[in-house]
Amino acid sequence: MAEPIALISGVGPGTGAALARRFAAGGHRVAMLARDGERLAALEREIAGARGVVCDVGDADQVDAAVETVRRELGAPSVLIHNAVGGAFANFLDLDPAVLEHNFRVNVMGLLHLARRLAPAMIEAGAGAIVATGNTSALRGKADFAGFAPTKAAQRILAESMARHLGPQGVHVAYVVIDAVIDLPWTRQMMHARLGREPAGDFFITPQAIADEVWHLVQQPRAAWSFNVEIRPFGEPW
Description:
seven-stranded parallel β-sheet; 7 helices; 7 strands; about 240 residues; alpha/beta
């Protein structure tokens, strides 16, 4: 049988790269979408069978071109993971409205564009999975998250609408709320500056742990599908 195809958006050095490695290790050929062509090229050299495609998922024309490239070179994806994210820190008075519009295009319209192009083949096959990675901004709007939280809340609701439509047709849709600081060099520097010390190692969630949970979701049997999934370090208050 041909290897299944997983398309992952937002393949950066953290969660996106970990997702690509995890699904490749699980037997998938991986299509990686991101705006940084150099990073994609480096991951192509590292991950056998992976294909990087430069794409801004907030641009419908670029999504069309990227999906066509993936279909032509790899085949029709049976897994879509929307990990691309546009973020900003500002209250609603200080926020440049253009930033909110940009983040909406990436976080919400990006999911919509990709799912509309990939879901029909999954429906025809009667199987497939679509997972969006989110965070607690999808559940609450803190004061300085006015340019971000509205888009993640809309993303979660869009995913829920998709899940209710696609589930009866055999396609599993899930939304992952990552209630954690992801372990990356820049987040360690940020937390050190904020706390005045290096946090304990288990303060952070690793990209690999996130990738493992997404892999688990995609492997769930039809009789036990999850939609809302929350993951957090054991010491995280909530």
